[in-house]
Amino acid sequence: MEIGAKLIVLLLAAAPVSELRGAIPYGILVAKLSLAEVFILAILGNLLPVIPLFFGIEFILKGLNHFRWTKKFGLWIVETTKRRTTIIEYYEAIGLALFVAIPLPITGAWTGIIAASLFKIKFRYALLAVIVGVLIAGIVVTGLTLSGSELFHLLYKK
């Protein structure tokens, strides 16, 4: 079970919707893995798609634009990313790190790296900013998970 749970943490962190926000609470609260294991697996999992996505997003978007039924989705990705990432457009790499560090929906490594590619931020700066942002987000989500768990246990202790 433990190897399966570790794989789930890694995959949840790599997935575009859950990322760290889903992986860390799952690993700590559901799978009952050690804090160090969860943190490392979640960080690694969240960083797994970063390089392929940075270099592949333009290819993916061009592919989506070739078909009438997927073109709307490609446009939605671009427009949603640009609308949500004005901090990145203005502050570039520093804004990217801050954007990725905020553990809210439609923020994180996936949206951040797509924005970095769309705004033509150099790869080395984008990668460093996303790593810093993911580490900060990991600390924040871990802290919130632990404090929320403690609060839950205090309120509902029987």
Topology of this structure?
Elements: H1 2-14, H2 19-30, H3 35-47, H4 50-65, H5 68-84, H6 86-91, H7 93-101, H8 109-118, H9 123-155
Helix pairs in contact: 1-2, 1-3, 2-3, 2-9, 3-9, 4-5, 4-8, 7-8, 7-9, 8-9
Would you give an account of this structure?
The chain has 158 residues and is mainly α. It has one domain. Helices cover 82% and strands 0% of the residues. It is built from 9 helices and no strands. The longest helix is centred in the C-terminal third of the chain and has 33 residues, at 123-155. It is globular, with a radius of gyration of 17 Å. The two termini are 29 Å apart. 32% of the residues are buried.
Outline of the structure:
The protein is an all-alpha fold and 158 residues long. The chain has helices at 2-14, 19-30, 35-47, 50-65, 68-84, 86-91, 93-101, 109-118, 123-155.
Key terms:
mainly alpha, 158 residues, 0% strand
Count of folded domains: 1
Alpha-beta content class: mainly alpha
In terms of quaternary structure, the protein is: single chain
Instruction: Give the strand tally.
Output: 0
Order of helices and strands: HHHHHHHHH
Write down the overall mean pLDDT.
Answer: 93
